[in-house]
Fold Polyketide cyclase.
Amino acid sequence: MAVLTVSTVVEAPAERVWELVGDFHALGDWHPHLPPSRLGNGLAGNAIGSVRVFELPDGVVLHETLLAYDDEARSYTYSFPDGTFHFDGYRATLRVTPVTELAASFVEWSVRYDIEAEHRKDSTERVHGVFTTGLAGLRERFAS
Protein backbone atom coordinates (compact mmCIF):
# COMPACT_ATOMS: atom_id res chain seq x y z
CA MET A 1 0.00 0.00 0.00
CA ALA A 2 1.28 3.44 -0.94
CA VAL A 3 0.65 6.60 1.07
CA LEU A 4 0.83 10.20 -0.12
CA THR A 5 0.34 13.25 2.11
CA VAL A 6 0.34 16.92 1.14
CA SER A 7 -0.18 19.68 3.69
CA THR A 8 -0.09 23.43 4.14
CA VAL A 9 -0.82 26.17 6.65
CA VAL A 10 -3.70 28.50 5.78
CA GLU A 11 -3.83 31.96 7.33
CA ALA A 12 -7.37 31.68 8.66
CA PRO A 13 -9.01 30.00 11.66
CA ALA A 14 -9.95 26.36 11.20
CA GLU A 15 -13.66 27.17 11.51
CA ARG A 16 -13.51 29.51 8.48
CA VAL A 17 -11.47 27.11 6.38
CA TRP A 18 -13.78 24.21 7.27
CA GLU A 19 -16.83 26.28 6.26
CA LEU A 20 -15.41 26.21 2.74
CA VAL A 21 -13.76 22.80 2.45
CA GLY A 22 -16.11 20.90 4.74
CA ASP A 23 -18.80 20.65 2.07
CA PHE A 24 -17.97 17.42 0.21
CA HIS A 25 -19.63 18.74 -2.93
CA ALA A 26 -17.80 22.10 -2.93
CA LEU A 27 -14.32 20.91 -3.95
CA GLY A 28 -14.71 22.42 -7.42
CA ASP A 29 -15.66 25.75 -5.80
CA TRP A 30 -12.25 26.21 -4.17
CA HIS A 31 -9.87 23.99 -6.16
CA PRO A 32 -8.47 26.10 -9.03
CA HIS A 33 -8.20 23.21 -11.51
CA LEU A 34 -11.35 21.20 -10.81
CA PRO A 35 -14.76 21.99 -12.24
CA PRO A 36 -17.82 22.13 -10.00
CA SER A 37 -19.14 18.65 -9.25
CA ARG A 38 -22.66 17.39 -9.70
CA LEU A 39 -24.58 14.94 -7.56
CA GLY A 40 -24.05 11.35 -8.60
CA ASN A 41 -26.89 9.86 -6.60
CA GLY A 42 -29.82 11.01 -4.51
CA LEU A 43 -27.71 11.78 -1.45
CA ALA A 44 -26.92 15.46 -1.11
CA GLY A 45 -24.69 17.31 1.32
CA ASN A 46 -22.35 15.38 3.55
CA ALA A 47 -24.41 12.20 3.80
CA ILE A 48 -22.29 9.06 3.93
CA GLY A 49 -22.56 7.36 0.54
CA SER A 50 -23.06 10.64 -1.31
CA VAL A 51 -21.37 10.70 -4.71
CA ARG A 52 -19.82 13.73 -6.40
CA VAL A 53 -19.12 13.57 -10.11
CA PHE A 54 -16.46 15.59 -11.91
CA GLU A 55 -16.23 15.88 -15.67
CA LEU A 56 -12.54 16.62 -16.10
CA PRO A 57 -11.14 18.68 -19.00
CA ASP A 58 -9.41 15.60 -20.46
CA GLY A 59 -12.80 13.86 -20.81
CA VAL A 60 -12.47 11.63 -17.75
CA VAL A 61 -15.60 11.39 -15.59
CA LEU A 62 -14.65 10.82 -11.96
CA HIS A 63 -17.08 9.48 -9.33
CA GLU A 64 -16.03 9.99 -5.70
CA THR A 65 -18.00 8.49 -2.81
CA LEU A 66 -18.07 9.95 0.70
CA LEU A 67 -17.08 7.21 3.17
CA ALA A 68 -16.75 9.13 6.44
CA TYR A 69 -17.56 12.64 7.61
CA ASP A 70 -16.70 14.18 10.98
CA ASP A 71 -17.74 17.81 11.34
CA GLU A 72 -16.32 18.06 14.87
CA ALA A 73 -12.89 16.71 13.82
CA ARG A 74 -13.12 18.68 10.55
CA SER A 75 -12.34 15.77 8.27
CA TYR A 76 -13.86 13.58 5.61
CA THR A 77 -12.76 10.50 3.70
CA TYR A 78 -13.77 9.50 0.20
CA SER A 79 -12.96 6.89 -2.43
CA PHE A 80 -13.33 6.27 -6.11
CA PRO A 81 -13.85 2.99 -7.97
CA ASP A 82 -10.98 0.54 -8.27
CA GLY A 83 -9.17 0.91 -11.56
CA THR A 84 -9.64 4.69 -11.75
CA PHE A 85 -6.26 6.07 -12.85
CA HIS A 86 -4.92 2.53 -12.16
CA PHE A 87 -5.55 2.84 -8.39
CA ASP A 88 -7.14 0.16 -6.21
CA GLY A 89 -8.36 0.73 -2.67
CA TYR A 90 -8.09 4.51 -3.07
CA ARG A 91 -9.06 6.24 0.21
CA ALA A 92 -8.35 9.96 0.58
CA THR A 93 -8.86 12.14 3.65
CA LEU A 94 -9.04 15.91 3.87
CA ARG A 95 -8.51 17.32 7.37
CA VAL A 96 -8.41 20.83 8.86
CA THR A 97 -6.72 21.30 12.25
CA PRO A 98 -6.39 24.56 14.19
CA VAL A 99 -2.96 26.14 14.64
CA THR A 100 -4.11 28.03 17.73
CA GLU A 101 -1.01 30.13 18.32
CA LEU A 102 -1.32 31.68 14.85
CA ALA A 103 -5.12 31.69 14.49
CA ALA A 104 -4.41 29.63 11.38
CA SER A 105 -5.18 26.16 10.05
CA PHE A 106 -3.11 23.12 9.20
CA VAL A 107 -4.74 21.47 6.19
CA GLU A 108 -3.72 17.94 5.28
CA TRP A 109 -4.84 15.93 2.26
CA SER A 110 -3.70 12.33 2.34
CA VAL A 111 -4.41 9.16 0.42
CA ARG A 112 -3.73 5.43 0.68
CA TYR A 113 -3.94 3.17 -2.35
CA ASP A 114 -2.60 0.13 -4.14
CA ILE A 115 -1.15 0.43 -7.62
CA GLU A 116 0.93 -1.72 -9.94
CA ALA A 117 4.56 -0.64 -10.21
CA GLU A 118 4.28 0.22 -13.90
CA HIS A 119 1.65 2.90 -13.18
CA ARG A 120 2.95 4.16 -9.82
CA LYS A 121 4.99 7.16 -11.00
CA ASP A 122 2.46 8.71 -13.42
CA SER A 123 -0.62 8.11 -11.30
CA THR A 124 1.02 9.23 -8.08
CA GLU A 125 2.30 12.41 -9.76
CA ARG A 126 -1.23 13.12 -11.00
CA VAL A 127 -2.72 12.88 -7.51
CA HIS A 128 0.16 14.83 -5.97
CA GLY A 129 -0.48 17.59 -8.50
CA VAL A 130 -4.20 17.70 -7.71
CA PHE A 131 -3.56 17.86 -3.96
CA THR A 132 -0.73 20.42 -4.20
CA THR A 133 -2.62 22.71 -6.56
CA GLY A 134 -5.76 22.50 -4.43
CA LEU A 135 -4.00 23.36 -1.20
CA ALA A 136 -2.06 26.21 -2.84
CA GLY A 137 -5.34 27.63 -4.14
CA LEU A 138 -6.90 27.30 -0.70
CA ARG A 139 -3.94 29.05 0.92
CA GLU A 140 -4.12 31.89 -1.62
CA ARG A 141 -7.87 32.27 -1.11
CA PHE A 142 -7.32 33.07 2.58
CA ALA A 143 -4.08 35.05 2.18
CA SER A 144 -4.21 38.46 3.78
About this structure: Strands lie at 2-10, 38-39, 51-55, 61-70, 75-79, 87-99, 104-115. Residues 77 and 93 are 4 Å apart (CA to CA).
